[in-house]
Amino acid sequence: MASLPLPDLAERLDRLPVTRLHAMAMLLCGVGMTIDTLEMAFGGVLGTVFSAQSPPVPPGELGLLLSAVFVGAVVGAPLLGWWADRQGRRRALVALMLWIALASLGAGMAHGVEALTLCRFLAGLALGGYPPIVIAYLTDLLPPQRRGTLIFLSLTPSLLGPPAAIFMVRWLAPLQPLGLEGWRWGFLVGSACAILSALSFLALPESPRWLRARGREAQAEVVLQAFERSATVLAVPPGAAAAGPAGQPADRADATSSVPTRRRWLAVVGLFSLSPWATIAFPLLTGAVLAQRGFKLDAALLIFGLSSMGPLVGTLLASTVMDRVDRRVAMAACIAAMLACGAAFNFSTGTAALIVAMALFNLCVSLYVPLLTVYSAELFPTRQRASATSVAWAINRLGGALGPLLLVPTLRGAGPAVMFAVVAASLLATLVVLAASPRGLERQAIS
């Protein structure tokens, strides 16, 4: 079969409507992301449980436990991104889910904080690699004019992961089936779900854009033809792939691609370095803050769980406009809202006010993190997309690992207000970096 030049295959892929094959990839990736967020949410659950018990786990041990999964992500994300760019997106996703299953099984059976910390580190190796790789995969596949919206819709089920983890543990904590604590059952259920997800990924097509970038033209053509034969689910407006949003010129992608690679890296590294203080560490310590304020475990988990449900409806609504707004403007709006909601949470005393403030904060986080990851994935070419996004994600997880180590002692020693001052400083610095970052590629073709 004759080799196709890259622009021809890429243009054919970009002109496709949203097909059943696209929809299947979105659904399975979304289910996998739900498992990822459920597993990550267990950090907040453990922080709440071990802070509320008597006596509480010492701050140093608790900080290490909460940081372990992020330390694992720092190691695992860049290695797995590199592997996904060389061995394939689908193979990487299958391997990641199998690893998560084994690590979660170990966490559910662990005895002692040290063993649990080790299992959380091992889980982090894969949990840190999954989000950037799955977003790189979906960025490869989805039509450019609906790319942001469709990625948001695909990842929306993942917002059910944190409340599912929290309420499952809250329900099982007093029951202790088979004599096992509720948090252990959470890990065991997560392990079983990860195995099922790994098996489902075997049905996914490989990215034809990745296959072509690796010189496997014949396989790329076969997969592309499968997409072309697949039934249409959602039509794409004619000519939309070549046009920018709100009438902006179609050569904006060329202008962004001409931005020096160093400037792109500086922007991505800066944004991912600053984000975890607000998007990871602060939500992770919500339960610990409530426990320090005197809320009992059951009440703390209830507030924590209800506040984690806020992002679901908001993300569905926001997905309808994400491809119509400059990625940087949308991220700046999220940051401003996080500042307001975080301050409200720290200075509120009523239960209803705490739930609303943290629900809105979590909503902003759920919008900001995918926006940042999609924005970064669009800046890099296919051959580097998973590697670049995973390196950026590893930087983010490094901040996530350092956050609890700094913020737990700050919370215990100086109180919630001082802890949030650190978070607010990182958000203000993010606004400065955003102002100097390249334009996003919403509704633009990618290389």
Strand-helix topology:
Blueprint: H1 6-15, E1 18-19, H2 20-52, H3 59-87, H4 89-108, H5 113-127, H6 130-141, H7 147-155, H8 161-172, H9 182-201, H10 208-213, H11 217-229, E2 232-234, H12 252-257, H13 261-274, H14 276-284, H15 286-292, H16 297-307, H17 311-318, H18 327-347, H19 351-379, H20 382-414, H21 416-435
Antiparallel strand pairs: 1-2
Overview of this structure, please?
The chain is 75% helix and 1% strand. With 447 residues, the protein is mainly alpha-helical. It has a two-stranded antiparallel ribbon with strand order 1-2. The longest helix is centred in the first third of the chain and has 33 residues, at 20-52. It is globular. The model is unreliable at 1-7 and 239-250 (pLDDT under 50).
Largest beta sheet: strand ordering: 1-2
Taken from the alpha-carbon principal axes, the silhouette is globular
Tell how many strands the DSSP assignment holds: 2
The CATH architecture can be given as Up-down Bundle
**CATH domain class:** Mainly Alpha
> Would you list the SSEs in sequence order as H and E?
HEHHHHHHHHHHEHHHHHHHHHH
- Mean pLDDT comes to 79
